[in-house]
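During the no-cost extension, the postdoctoral fellow (Dr. R.K.) reprocessed legacy sequence entries with the updated structure-token encoder. One reprocessed record is reproduced below for audit purposes.
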Amino acid sequence: MTMNIKRATHIFDELKFESNLKRLDYFQKKTGAKVLLALKGYNPHHSGELVSKYLAGVAVSSLYEAKSSSMHYDGEVHTYCPAYEDDTFDELASHSSHIVFNSREDLKRYHHRVPSNVKIDLRLNLEHKMHHEEIFDGYNPNLPNSRFGVTINEFDASDIEKYNISGFHFHALNSQGAEELKEASKTLIEKFGRYLDRVERINLGGGHLVCCENYDWDLLSETVSHLKDFYQLEVYIEPSQHVYNEVGVLKSKILSIAYNNANIAILDVSAKNHMPDILECPTYFAEVDEAKIDGSSGGFKYILAGPTCLSGDIIGEYIFNNKLKVGDFITFKNQSAYTFTQSTYFNGIRKPDMIVIDKKGNVKYRNSDSFDKFLSCI
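Re-encoded structure tokens follow.
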């Protein structure tokens, strides 16, 4: 296999992707629950046939994602937006199997425009207090004054029949294990349990560490089975980021090496443009395949930095066995989710190329950035 990589490139491995999808499918068959792939982390349209083969459908957050779903995926399309645009709502609903309303105001405003074959869900805000691991505030949907969902104080049970609500949805986790989901489901039951027998389904949202090492699938199954059996509910989860665990890497080329009290390798990828979690989340660290995990035995220390004019465009400090040189490639691990979908044209920097490798090791799909694409976004 020759990929002929010359610059920053995302590499997506379908073999590993299918392996993760098979694990999710096993969970579906074991519990009777349904798994949706949330496209907000990454939209693998190039591998839509695999998603359609193993999962119940997709979860989308916008008109463009919904239209893409109609083109590339089979199965259900669950649409949730914190607020809907009046001039695009009808088209959005036409591409959806389920519409999730975020507030009672939007429920009242749009329910009569939902087609009869599309089901209506309501997002709940559990105001859940974390039991095992706190979430960085910027990613925490449970904080006071959160714009996401209806709290128990705002909830009106008469809306269920009045607006034909047939399901509830909540999202309380962010990269957390089955233990925290169990606690969140307890919060759901404590606050909204008396209403669960009046709807048909519950969507437990995303943020699950599925497909990651040591994830407690048995506890997840136990939590899902309780909701399914005791309340006679159809149960969904909609993971995104961790469905891509070990699936994609980002290859980056060293453009220059500078020195200012430390060795600084300037790359053709940017924390600002291509890996925004580095700057947004203080607990996130981008793993580099070639770097040493433990620097106690020596090595060569480098600050890896981006090519933009932003002073804070720093990826991190790493230790390597060998000296780096211009033209070397560095491999950032686990870079499929929340990278490509959040990339920008700040400073007019080119976006990374994309290569998809199929199960036989052949290049299935290749996409490169261009000046015309840049102009179309200005």
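The longest strand covers residues 248-259. The domain at 247-376 is CATH 2.40.37.10 (Lyase, Ornithine Decarboxylase; Chain A, domain 1). The remaining legacy entries will be reprocessed before the final report is submitted.
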